[in-house]
Structure formats: C-alpha cells, structure tokens
Design brief:
71 residues, alpha+beta, globular
C-alpha cells in the first residue's frame, strides 16, 4: 500500500482534515507508507523542519523512488 488513503477521492478533497485526524488516531503523528514518511500535525512538522539531523544532503530522496532514472 503506497498511501493509507486515496488522495484523488472527492471526499478527501472536500475535507482532508478528517482523513488526517483518522490517520493520527490510527498511526500517530508519523505515518510510514510505501511512498515514504508523512508527518502529521503542525508541531511535529515544525520539529522535523528545525531538526538539523533531518533534511538536505546527499543520498536518495523519495523522488528517486517514483520515476526510474533514464539510462
């Protein structure tokens, strides 16, 4: 399962916050998916963004898993 919800579902678009609340209730503030990791909640996101151990640098990112690199 890439994502635990369908981001193209009209119900998600009409109220994405209901989906986020359900994800937090089930998984907590960090959701690991086939597409990577989603951090839910303002305080948790700000903690990730301010943590110098996380972020930019050498190495594979999620974008490297989406589209194969041309040969």
């Amino acid at each position: 399962e890439v994502l635990p919800y369908n981001p193209f579902d009209p119900a998600f678009h009409s109220d994405p916050y209901a989906t986020y609340r359900a994800l937090r209730a089930t998984h907590g503030s960090v959701v690991r998916t086939g597409a990577g990791v989603a951090v839910l909640g303002y305080k948790d996101v700000m903690g990730v963004l301010r943590n110098p151990k996380l972020g930019r640098g050498e190495g594979a990112g999620y974008q490297d898993t989406l589209i194969p690199t041309p040969e």
